[in-house]
Amino acid sequence: MTAVTAPTGCGNAGCLGAVASGAAQVTALRDQGVPVSDLTGVIRLIDDGDRHATALARQAGRAIGEILAVVVNFFNPQVVAIGGRLADCEPLLASMRVTLYERCLPLATQTLLIERVATSQDVGITGAAHLVIDHVVAAN
Questions:
Q1: CB under 8 Å to 6, separation ≥6 — which residues?
Q2: How confident is the model at residue 9 (pLDDT cuts 50, 70, 90)?
Q3: In 3-state terms, the chain is what percent helix, strand and coil (to 5)?
Q4: pTM of the entire structure?
């Protein structure tokens, strides 16, 4: 199995989106001869136990976990929130969690919560509002 390295929306080859996005999953499966047309088809294949789709989901989870490990070790957050359609893909999440816990310092993961979140178009605005509220409350 080879990693997908096609340029993504950011224009870079080899970035996280090129190996772990839904579009990357569709492209990789098509390259392997698996007839899939969109992310819904990929998720259906994973739910049905297709070994190619499941292996790609695990590979994507490892890639996401490697990036998150750097962030968690550096910032030591309380929560890692995972959203999007692939957040419901259990093989991806399981692989991401394993990689994250393997690569992080125990102190950083001791109380770390990894949560699935429902996302909407306003998720950025909602996150910014929470930051403002936290800042105002902390100042008082």
A1: 13, 18, 24, 27
A2: low
A3: 65, 5, 30
A4: 0.80
Residue showing tokens 């199995």: 1
DSSP letter string, 79-136: EEEE-SGGGG-HHHHHHHHHHHHHHS-HHHHSS-EEEE----TTHHHHHHHHHHHHHH
Q: For residues 117 and 129, what is the distance between their CA atoms, to the nearest angstrom?
A: 16
Question: Taking the chain, what is the end-to-end CA distance rounded to the nearest angstrom?
Answer: 55
CA dihedral for 108, 82, 23, 45, sign (positive or negative): positive
Our separate counts of H helices and E strands in the chain read 7, 2
Q: Which two tokens stand for residue 11?
A: 């224009």
Tokens representing 131 are 């930051």
